[in-house]
Design a protein that fits this description.
There is one protein chain. This protein has a four-stranded parallel beta sheet with strand order 3-2-1-4, with helices on both faces. The protein is α/β, with parallel strands linked by helices. It is globular and about 40 Å long. Helix 1 packs across helix 3, helix 3 runs antiparallel to helix 4 and helix 5 packs across helix 6. The two termini are 29 Å apart.
Length: 150
């Protein structure tokens, strides 16, 4: 029987939209600020974020694109800001899942097909289901898929 003073180990699967909103929240006012509470909850309770290997390519590409942004009104980061954000990201308790085996890749494909997702987005959904963890995302298609799975 667990000690009454112990709390469950909080974990979430997070996608790039969620983590980018958190990492960039200090640079813009945004309706995605709710992610800050979720991240603080994980940090305050010694929890962990779960991501597929793809996450690292996606999040760093988001930051790279923000350093290249030339559109008026769009957030533009300096290279120094992007490097600071990457450093902060690496300090977070993030578990990167192993490269998926054939069975996992097949499930990802099936989820992508069933819920009309990209293979990339379906990898987050599959990971969430496999580990039995909530998926934190701001992607509407992923949110819809999560609600349909319930």
């Amino acid at each position: 029987m667990p000690d009454e003073n112990t709390k469950p180990f909080p974990c979430f699967v997070v996608d790039t939209s969620f983590m980018a909103a958190y990492l960039l929240s200090g640079f813009c006012d945004d309706e995605f600020a709710s992610c800050i509470k979720d991240v603080e909850y994980i940090l305050e309770n010694n929890g962990q974020f779960y991501v597929p290997p793809l996450f690292w390519y996606e999040i760093e590409n988001v930051l790279l694109q923000k350093t290249r942004s030339k559109k008026a009104g769009q957030l533009r980061l300096s290279k120094s800001d992007a490097m600071d954000i990457l450093y902060d990201l690496q300090q977070l308790p993030i578990y990167t899942d192993l490269l998926p085996d054939g069975e996992i890749r097949q499930r990802i494909f099936e989820f992508a097909e069933e819920y009309d997702l990209s293979y990339y987005d379906a990898s987050y959904l599959e990971m969430s289901r496999r580990y039995g963890l909530p998926l934190k995302t701001f992607d509407e298609d992923l949110r819809q898929a999560v609600s349909e799975m319930r």
